[in-house]
């Protein structure tokens, strides 16, 4: 004997199970897609930061060719070209991006950066001048300061450097640039303060350490500054100080520093040896 009510109940349960199955598959699909996007983002981040620059360019070229209308792929390629030192191609890539209707103010900042890397300072200034004043970023003001420096607009440069420092939690690099600007103007004491401050933010920034030695040497202070340094860095800084001393006519001090650099370096210090031989010869 058939039981219509029981059959209807079974059919209803079947539909319910089917709906649950469909919902589960949808969730699985979303999870897979999410994982795929996360993996792609991870690969992209690696390629933009720590991967071999040439491999990164090749990777993003394939991406850009596969999705020519995706401006994000074009941005990735332009950034990879700059990172690989292919600055002319990088500038052209950013110019293409800026010409797109999908571009934004940050693209103009990257274009200005690429122009500076190509020593096209006048064009970089023109590009920076087109950026709305409401676009206040560390990268923008760092470039503004560099351009002002190149034009010897010192007050303007100082203002931009100060603004840039206030817009980042990692100001070591821009402080080093600011210090070098002060050094070229002949303000060695201000330069020294900025180099020391840069090193406090990044103890591994050797450029700031080297510039600090130059700033002190300009005041004929040849003793190494008290900052963190490895044995090899100590030798390199002695070499820098020695050459600076010789250039300023303090030959005996320079000779002593070069010898100390040779004795301190953990390996053979060819540059210091050649400098000392040339001096003695």
Automatic annotation (TrEMBL):
Keywords annotated in UniProt: Lipoprotein
PROSITE patterns for this protein: PROKAR_LIPOPROTEIN
Protein name: Putative PEP-CTERM system TPR-repeat lipoprotein
Organism whose genome encodes this protein: Jannaschia donghaensis
């Amino acid at each position: 004997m058939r039981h219509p009510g029981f059959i209807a109940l079974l059919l209803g349960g079947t539909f319910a199970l089917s709906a649950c199955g469909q919902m589960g598959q949808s969730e699985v699909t979303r999870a897979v897609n999410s994982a795929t996007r996360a993996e792609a983002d991870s690969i992209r981040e690696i390629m933009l930061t720590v991967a071999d620059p040439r491999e990164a360019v090749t990777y993003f070229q394939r991406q850009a060719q596969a999705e020519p209308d995706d401006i994000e792929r074009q941005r990735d390629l332009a950034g990879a070209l700059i990172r690989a030192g292919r600055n002319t191609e990088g500038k052209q890539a950013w110019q293409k991006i800026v010409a797109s209707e999908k571009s934004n103010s940050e693209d103009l900042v990257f274009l200005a950066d690429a122009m500076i890397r190509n020593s096209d300072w006048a064009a970089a200034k023109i590009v920076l001048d087109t950026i709305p004043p409401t676009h206040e970023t560390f990268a923008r003001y760092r470039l503004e300061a560099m351009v002002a420096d190149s034009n010897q607009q010192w007050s303007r440069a100082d203002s931009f450097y100060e603004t840039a420092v206030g817009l980042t939690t990692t100001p070591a690099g821009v402080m080093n640039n600011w210090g070098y600007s002060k050094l070229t103007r002949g303000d060695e004491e201000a330069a020294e303060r900025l180099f020391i401050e840069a090193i406090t933010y990044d103890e591994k920034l050797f450029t700031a350490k080297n510039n600090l030695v130059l700033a002190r040497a300009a005041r004929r202070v040849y003793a190494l500054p008290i900052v963190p340094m490895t044995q090899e860095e100590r030798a390199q800084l002695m070499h820098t100080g020695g050459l600076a001393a010789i250039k300023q006519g303090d030959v005996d001090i320079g000779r002593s520093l070069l010898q100390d650099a040779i004795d301190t370096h953990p390996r053979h210090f060819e540059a210091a040896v050649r400098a000392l031989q040339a001096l003695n010869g």
